[in-house]
UniProtKB/TrEMBL annotation:
SUPFAM superfamilies: HIT/MYND zinc finger-like. Pfam families: MSS51_C (PF20179), zf-MYND (PF01753). It comes from the Eukaryota. Residues 1-14 have a biased composition (Basic residues). Residues 99-143 form the MYND-type domain. Residues 1-30 are annotated as: Disordered. PROSITE patterns: ZF_MYND_1, ZF_MYND_2. It comes from Monodelphis domestica. GO terms for molecular function: zinc ion binding. Keywords: Metal-binding, Zinc, Zinc-finger. This is Annexin A7.
Amino acid sequence: MAPRRQRRHHRQHPKCPAPAAAPQVTPAPPASGPSIHTLGFLSLERNVPGLSQVILQKLNLKSYEEYKAVVNGGIPGPGFGISSLSDMFQRLEDTFQFCARCRVLPDQLPVSEVLRRCKRCRNVYYCGRECQRADWPLHRKVCWELGLVAVDRLLEWLVVTGDFSLPSGPWPWPPGAVRDWDTWFSMWGSHLDTMLDSALGSHAMSTLWDSVGRPRPDPESLRGSLRRLLTDTLSQPLTLGLGLRALVGNNGKPGGTTVHVVGASHVETFLSSRGAYEEFAHMVPGHIGLHVTLVGVDLAEEAPPQDASPSPSSPGKIQLSSYRGLYHDFWEEKIETGRAVWPDLVVGFHPGFHADQDLMAGWLPTLLLLRDYAIPTMFTVYSQQELTASLHILGQLEARVVAYGENPFASLKPEQAYSNPNKPPVYCSAYYILFRGSCHQSDEEDAAGRTENGI
């Protein structure tokens, strides 16, 4: 069985709202565009004063610009370096050390005092018993999940290094029988169990736990963590496949199927470099060809080649390309000039346009473009709150929402709020939104779309 996350109420298909004024936004930003990752890093200072500087200091970096360059695969400047695996894990742990109650940092404590970690979750720190006791009613609700986060954060290193790889090869089951993580794990069965056992007994696993300065968890806990990491790595390509099934189907058009991933970042870059998108191809066997183009201002240096030319795809193959910039700029430069293929589906993972006026300003031309050209589009969000806010914005823009709800291929790896550790963890791509065109389409077309295209 698949690991479990907390289930939330599934919403029914929304009706198009009455026409409303577009949201009040500032003029569109420069071509480079706003970055949700930049805004997230800078928000650390508001929640925990001094934390962003601690992160830079531990990495021997002078500015966020240097930090972003390293995250995106650039060459670090002089002074950057990690002496050993133990050093790396210690520096990582140091960036989580602040009192979850009063937000005090280690260097702000009296000389004789130190931050102490919760013995249960090994994830959250307190400056003393007073803060820990006062915070316990809040922390007790998330302590168990934060314990999972602490283990996943360490084992993720095996995914980064390639010491824990993905299942490979065509699916042994018909794609239509794989509906969620339970059926996906059942499909791989004993083959996956063998992979997990191999990872547990590997030299890389032993070296990792020899380096982290904490006891090694029991085998079942480690096995559960590896399964969660698998879902986190494959959530995006499988969610993309769900969107294609629901909004497009296997159209079999000459030249294959084209998907644009908008708002892409170093996350999508990493997935493309690890072969995760091959799982997307396995969802639609027998396809004429799949072409996935990553478009975003936060793409890493090792992103796929920046070539979205309309060359024919090869049957059974998946082609990856990229474009560093905003999607509406990509559209004008590539699509309108015939240098790239019109998309069959556009997908945005955690676009975040609900969270900030600058982000909304950057996204507005893209949202209007997707609506006006009636391009089948799928967005994912972290939480019910984000889902509600995003649906509200799409409603103001009079986009025709086809369906929304819980994603059966959401990541099962809990994500901790960095600067607010006792906030309930969220899960990547927990909810989806499907929309196509505007609300001014006929009721008959809307009803047909809902009947045929629901996930």
